[in-house]
Amino acid sequence: MNPERRTLLAAMVACPTLLLPALPAAAAARGMPQPLQLPPEGGFPNSAWPVLFYQDAYPARTADLASLYETEFAAHGWPPQWRYGMYPFDHFHSTAHEALGIFSGHARVRLGGPHGRPLDVAAGDVLVLPAGTGHCALSSSDDFMMVGAYPRGQSWDMQRGDPAELEQVRHAIAQVPRPALDPLGHPLQAFWP
């Protein structure tokens, strides 16, 4: 490898925002996500990769926000699978990453397991959860709804954080590949190296 290329690659690893000029215009306009790092907790492995929180990815009053999320997520390799709220119990998926586009209402959710991090979300926000990330709804408005999507080729399971299954789910999580793009079109390598 020539010295200039090696220097450029080292700079890109040290400062992932150098990748911004290569982003599609729509993704760059939305800004960067807030990375939320969650440590393992009991039977909830969480991930070495952070949750990506896009606050106000779209204006809350966007007409037919659910369909907009579905179209954009699918265009970036995350086909939508459902419209629903979030379960009120801690759970995670060991066989798929998950995108959650909030299109209606607001909620206080918890990320990381029973003693995890509370987070307020509302219409217009997007969460990208790496496989293994615990999540649940603590409270929500009556109209709280999300679009759920998973990378093409990944099928989700339901895990409840049983410590006896931790080794098995860690093995499953290690097999889940990182997609090239997040559901809003950002290169995931910049956030999930």
UniProtKB/TrEMBL annotation:
The UniProt keywords, alphabetically, are: Signal
Q: Enumerate the CDD domains for this protein.
A: cupin_YjlB-like
Q: Where is the signal peptide?
A: 1-27
Q: Where are the transmembrane segments?
A: none
- Does the keyword section mention Signal? yes
PANTHER family given in the database record: BLR7373 PROTEIN (PTHR36448), CUPIN TYPE-1 DOMAIN-CONTAINING PROTEIN (PTHR36448:SF2)
**Name of the protein:** Uncharacterized protein containing double-stranded beta helix domain
> Per the UniProt entry, what species is this protein from, by scientific name?
Frateuria aurantia (strain ATCC 33424 / DSM 6220 / KCTC 2777 / LMG 1558 / NBRC 3245 / NCIMB 13370) (Acetobacter aurantius)
